[in-house]
Known about the structure:
disordered C terminus, 74% helix, elongated, single chain
Amino acid sequence: MNDTLTIGTIAGIxxxxxxxxxxxxxxxxxxxxxxxxxxxxxxxxxxxxxNTTAGYIVGIISHLMIGTxxxxxxxxxxxxxxxxxxxxxxxxHLRLSLRGGGFLGRTD
Length: 108
């Protein structure tokens, strides 16, 4: 598959799903108070609307759009930056991804 847009879109959807599943796991362990899906919904809705059905739908759509847009941008960046020293580029992105966007810390 040589289409960068398609590769980025698929990678974005899969990584967003994985991020949300990890976020749910962290919430069940008590490490965080809100999931990444709730955070995405809170961008567009007030907090009392986030946990409704409409908030869930808005959260899913916005979370997938943000994750996919980031992955497409990263796919184009990797494509245009070349394959020399690829381990530097990928390890830097992996380190930023594992941070989880700051959702790992407690908000007490």
